[in-house]
Design a protein that fits this description.
The protein is an all-alpha fold. It has 2 domains: 193 residues, MFS general substrate transporter like domains (Growth Hormone, Chain: A), CATH 1.20.1250.20; 199 residues, Growth Hormone, Chain: A (Up-down Bundle), CATH 1.20.1250. It contains 14 helices and no strands. Helix 2 runs antiparallel to helix 12 and helix 7 runs antiparallel to helix 14. The protein is globular and about 65 Å long.
Length: 409
């Protein structure tokens, strides 16, 4: 059975090409940036962490007005400008040699990335029919993982060299990737901007949409899975299990390959709010099971048994991640008014920077301090949030359309 990697021809394939162009550089950047700032610039890990927390906090706030800008001025031009702004921020890392310069650069990077994500979603909504958006996003996610994997391999070569020049090449590669991304986006058809907002309507209407805010909050809780394999599980393996340390890399590769190969297939049945709610409920059940399996890896026993449990937990977690992504994409788009896609997607996307800033602290405290009960509590929290998303989405739809939500939702 063949797996269709490429999205449909036309705008979806161009969007995938733009995604690939910047994700390769990002993969190398994610692998190398921390060591560059510590070993070359001379910053302490604590100061780097504080700077990144500030940057993503600012970025999460900026996503909504930049998304609204995409609605008013047109998402294609806004996406191109923000891709170039991201390229400039990454290029500035070539010259960063002080904490002040580092802070300015990472704030610009986070603001540009959050705004670009919102503008790209608005561009996709303008170019792709409603029923096809989740499928196209699945292709883009698959492309993203492929690019990150390739970029991580290139970043590994730079780490192996360990020289300042190698790190600078990585930053130049990432900046060039965003320039290529901007060029590809510029080749897409123009999407007409939304008309003037009605008299009396607030400039950022999404901030007063409480039902949508609840859905966004629940999605932010579900995105706590983001630091799981990159931070919490590696620390869990080293500190709480007898599994070999190299398993950290193997689990990351397993997740990347699973999403790359199966995200499109997993997202195919998700076409409306009902199917999105089902996908999220199943995601919650699988997530709870994966947390229980991860917890069991700390029980007394041989190292190979712990390793087997960790692989099983990672496989379950990858399946849950793909279902959660598909369901959340569908809900985020379905509940956004057509003329305000950019600002609504900017608001919905605040879960990503929140997970990046708060997730590491919450997960390490919960799992490494509480151990097995912490895993079970995390699984219960994510299961509850997953099950609540469907009813919350139905209530938000009811508030938007004036049609009462079905009791079965």
């Amino acid at each position: 059975m063949t797996i269709r990697f490429l999205p449909p021809p036309g705008p979806p394939r161009r969007l995938a090409a733009a995604q690939l162009a910047n994700s390769v550089g990002d993969g190398a950047y994610y692998v190398c940036s921390a060591l560059f700032f510590t070993s070359v610039v001379g910053l302490s890990p604590a100061r780097i962490g504080l700077g990144l927390t500030v940057a993503w906090a600012v970025g999460s706030v900026a996503g909504v007005p930049l998304g609204a800008l995409a609605d008013r001025r047109g998402p294609r031009g806004t996406s191109v400008l923000l891709a170039l702004a991201t390229a400039a921020s990454v290029a500035s890392f070539l010259f960063v040699r002080s904490y002040g310069a580092f802070l300015c650069a990472v704030v610009l990077y986070a603001v540009s990335q959050c705004g670009l994500a919102a503008a790209r979603q608005a561009l996709l909504a303008g170019l792709v029919e409603t029923g096809q958006r989740t499928g196209v996003l699945a292709h883009l996610q698959s492309t993203l993982n492929a690019g990150l994997a390739l970029g991580a391999a290139l970043g590994g070569l730079a780490l192996g060299s360990g020289t300042e020049g190698a790190y600078l090449v990585v930053f130049a590669l990432d900046a060039a990737g965003f320039v290529v991304c901007a060029a590809v986006l510029l080749g897409l058809p123009v999407v007409a901007p939304a008309g003037r907002r009605p008299v009396g309507e607030p400039r950022l209407a999404v901030l007063r949409d409480r039902p949508y805010a609840l859905v966004t909050l629940l999605n932010a809780v579900l995105l706590l899975r983001m630091p799981l394999l990159s931070l919490a599980v590696p620390l869990w393996i080293v500190e709480r299990t007898r599994a070999p340390g190299w398993l950290v890399s193997a689990l990351f590769v397993l997740n990347t390959l699973a999403v790359m190969l199966f995200q499109v297939r997993t997202a195919r049945p998700v076409t409306d709010l009902d199917s999105a709610g089902r996908a999220l409920r199943r995601s919650g059940l699988v997530t709870a099971a994966s947390c229980a399996v991860f917890a069991a890896s700390a029980l007394p026993g041989a190292g190979w048994a712990a390793a087997a449990l960790l692989v099983a937990g990672a496989a379950l977690q990858a399946d849950a991640e793909m279902r959660q992504s598909a369901g959340s994409w569908q809900i985020g788009f379905s509940l956004a008014p057509a003329e305000r896609i950019g600002q609504y997607q900017g608001f919905f996307g605040t879960g990503v920077p929140l997970a990046r800033t708060l997730g590491p602290l919450l997960l390490t405290g919960l799992l490494l301090l509480w151990g097995i009960p912490g895993w079970l509590l995390l699984g219960g929290l994510l299961l509850a949030a997953s099950c609540a998303m469907g009813p919350a989405a139905r209530r938000a739809e009811s508030a938007r359309t004036g049609v009462p939500a079905r009791s079965g939702a």
